[in-house]
From TrEMBL:
One of its GO terms (biological process) is fatty acid beta-oxidation. The keyword Cytoplasm does not apply. Belongs to the enoyl-CoA hydratase/isomerase family. It comes from Mycobacterium shimoidei. Could possibly oxidize fatty acids using specific components. PANTHER family: ENOYL-COA HYDRATASE, MITOCHONDRIAL (PTHR11941:SF54), ENOYL-COA HYDRATASE-RELATED (PTHR11941). This is Enoyl-CoA hydratase/isomerase [Frankia sp. EAN1pec]. Keywords: Fatty acid metabolism, Isomerase, Lipid metabolism. GO terms for molecular function: enoyl-CoA hydratase activity; isomerase activity. It catalyses: a (3S)-3-hydroxyacyl-CoA = a (2E)-enoyl-CoA + H2O; a 4-saturated-(3S)-3-hydroxyacyl-CoA = a (3E)-enoyl-CoA + H2O. Pfam families: ECH_1.
Length: 246
């Protein structure tokens, strides 16, 4: 099943299929689609897995074994690719909290997020080649955007599985935290991102004109939230110049 909880402005989407190590079946795709619909309006969206063994262990081979024709395989790939596209295109920051291993399709879900935060003992890999197939949910293209085309081919072409430290070094994971504090650490960062400025920054990073970028800044400048924050900084006696925190 897929659970959705709200923590102030943060929506947390959790895949909870312990019997299959949070692998994705066809009904999971339907639930993911519905959960993304229900998360609309959240200031940040986090996706994680239940437990501490798996974020998402890929597609559920047992459930998907009935797919035998090219047309059926293509339909399944398009279905999950569209969900990953929805995560990537979510208007607010999306955080993949890698509570456990992210393998095959699980790695594809992870790279659909804007940011990947990992427990120190997880592994991540595009290891679909072990099944004589390839990433089909948009993960190959997103992997290349993150680590470069040659490294993406090396990783996905050989099915190399990286530990969290290696993944951070190549740019596949953004931050690594100790297992003991992982839940608190990723939630703290996700809450910080659940702010109006972070959503605007994501939009600008996605590619807008200079005019739109300046307009986004101006909208934030005149907001009550900006002036409340500015007054708080000035009352603390910090430098009142723009960006002035000593």
């Amino acid at each position: 099943m897929v659970d959705l909880e709200f923590d102030q402005g943060l929506a947390v989407l959790r895949i909870d299929r312990p019997h299959a190590r949070n692998a994705i079946a066809l009904d999971t795709m339907d639930q993911l689609d519905k959960a993304i619909d229900e998360a609309e309006g959240a200031r940040a969206l986090a996706i994680t897995g239940a437990g501490d063994r798996a974020f998402v262990s890929g597609g559920d081979l047992k459930e998907l074994s009935s797919i035998r024709t090219e047309d059926e395989a293509a339909a399944m790939a398009w279905r999950m690719r569209s969900i990953c596209d929805r995560l990537a295109g979510f208007p607010a920051p999306v955080i993949a909290a890698l509570n456990g291993h992210a393998l095959g399709g699980g790695a594809e879900v992870a790279v659909a997020a804007d940011i990947r935060l990992a427990a120190h003992d997880i592994k991540i890999g595009f290891n679909q080649v072990a099944l004589e197939i390839m990433p089909a949910w948009g993960g190959a293209e997103r992997l290349a955007a993150l680590v470069g085309q040659s490294r993406a081919l090396l990783l996905a072409g050989t099915g190399t599985v990286l530990d969290a430290g290696e993944a951070e070094r190549v740019g596949l994971v953004d931050r690594v935290f100790p297992r003991s504090s992982f839940d608190a650490d990723w939630r703290e960062i996700a809450r910080q991102l659940a702010s109006r400025p972070a959503g605007e920054i994501k939009r600008v990073l996605g590619g807008v004109s200079a005019d739109e970028a300046v307009k986004a800044f101006a909208r934030l400048w005149v907001s009550d939230a900006h002036w409340t924050a500015a007054d708080r900084v000035m009352k603390r006696g910090n430098d009142s110049r723009l960006g002035g925190v000593r």
